[in-house]
Amino acid sequence: MKLINSFLLGGLLLLSTQTTKSEEIFVTDADIKNHTKWTADNVYMLAGFVYVEKGEALTIEAGTVIKGMPGQGDGASALIVAQGGKIYANGTRNNPIIFTALSDDLTDSADLGPSDKGLWGGLIILGKARLNSPSAVEQNGFIVDNIEGIPVTDIRGEFGGDDDNDNSGVIRYVSIRHGGSVIGADNEINGLTLGGVGRGTTVEYVEVFANKDDGIEFFGGTVNTSNMVSAFCGDDAFDWDQGYRGNNKYWFVIQDESGDNALELDGDVDDFTKTPLTQGSVQFSTFIGANSNRCIRARENTGLHFYNNIITDYKDGIKVDSNAEGRLLDGGIEFKNSIFSNVATLSNDVAEWIFQDAELNLAVSDGSVVSVSRTQSSSLDPRSLSDNGYGAFEPNKPLWTDGWSFLYNGGFTVKESTNVEVVDYTPTIQQGWSIVGVPYNKNYTVSELFGNTPITVYYWDGSSFSINGFDADFEEWDEPNQQLKAGAGAWILND
């Protein structure tokens, strides 16, 4: 159901694809057909909402630039991958795919900065994985909702279903900048929206820079992510709700005073009891506030496993609302092995006891643990100043943001050798498995990382593998005193 729209741009009426000069191609909704490929020798200009519909696929070549036209409400621009559509945005470390505003001069790194927000829409991916609410829209035994910002009469805005392994494609080495167009009262487009996206989708090495609303939001689904950046976004850095159940590692957040929560985590939008319960994990991540923000707000029966992270420069650390307190008490919300540095108020009353539980290993410090800068002076160094094994970056190694992110190319992070390729092995995991990492500063025993809960631990040596077929080099360790090697990976199955 392609909609042919017209847009008046500078006095020129565009009815379909029009090239104003050899490297610029204006794209409307009518221009995505069957399997479309965008190449790096062109700049693609999004005019309005452009959909990749069911049965269609869009391949975006590494190094391609996509620019969104300015506009608000119905005139906003965005790329939307509908249910059954596929996107293959497979950038590289040296040739990332860039989504940005029409006004962004990519030859001038000082052209647009952290305060330039809401200049176009964003990237929206809609899949068929399960949601837990709203139950009022249940169809044929599963819930299908409509993503915010798209009229409910347009079925291309639907997300959710019964396929947790749904595959919407690949988003890798992608930088999304200066988005967040206003589409309604108190309603802006997120930098990256993932609605009901399944774990068959690959999302890694993605940056959202200076978005007016949330950086990245998960509406239900099961997609796993790694190496994600949310920088200088105007609302929350990351947000999840409606039964999201993904595993995430190596997230990096830096906020300015316009930001709200680093993590805003909701359970369901009905009565906070709906299943599947929201149960996301965040591990080996670094969160830098502006001394005026909150790091984590957990509410509405959400779940969270929060391990091996660094939290610094926040007014408030953790707020667990009373409608999520039960999850904190039953282990559905769990904080372990993390550092809270320069946080004025560690938690609200509901969660204050976790800082007195020595087994959780939550360290509190008044000093700096990373080198913070928000200027384009190549001074931001998010690696820990001590080799504590926590956070998104390893000490004495290049940042995994080097080469491809605007934090690097815009001159925010420290400049170092970028000739080291960061290799990240992510397994294909079945429902019921949890993936964890081992801190890289020392060996840990099984019981030190996982406590006394009966579990089976599978440890891998860094080779490629697939847990579904068990065609990997791994060892099964279930003895509490067995040691996992520093920096290794493991996945566990709760007995």
Brief description of this entry?
It contains three helices and 41 strands.
Which keywords apply here?
495 residues; mainly beta; 41 strands; 3 helices; 27-stranded mixed β-sheet; four-stranded antiparallel β-sheet
Describe this structure in words.
By secondary structure, the protein is mainly β. The chain folds into 2 domains: 7-409; 433-494. Helices cover 3% and strands 37% of the residues. It has 3 helices and 41 strands. The strands form 7 sheets. The chain has a 27-stranded mixed beta sheet that branches. Strands 36-41-38-39 form a 4-stranded antiparallel beta sheet, with no helix packed on it. The protein has a two-stranded antiparallel ribbon with strand order 1-2. A hairpin with a 2-residue loop joins strand 1 (7-9) and strand 2. The longest helix is centred in the middle third of the chain and has 5 residues, at 325-329. The termini are far apart. Mean pLDDT is 85; it is low at 3-22, 417-433 and 460-473.
Number of E strands: 41
Q: Quickly give the structural class.
A: mainly beta
State which percent range the strand residues make up. Answer: 35-45%
Shape descriptor reads: globular
**CA distance, first residue to last residue:** 47 Å
How many H/I helical runs? 3
Our Rg estimate from Cα atoms comes to 22 Å
Rounded average pLDDT: 85
Q: Summarize the amount of helix as a percent range.
A: under 10%
Largest sheet composition: 27 strands, mixed
Instruction: Tell me the domain tally.
Output: 2
Low-confidence stretches: 3-22, 417-433, 460-473
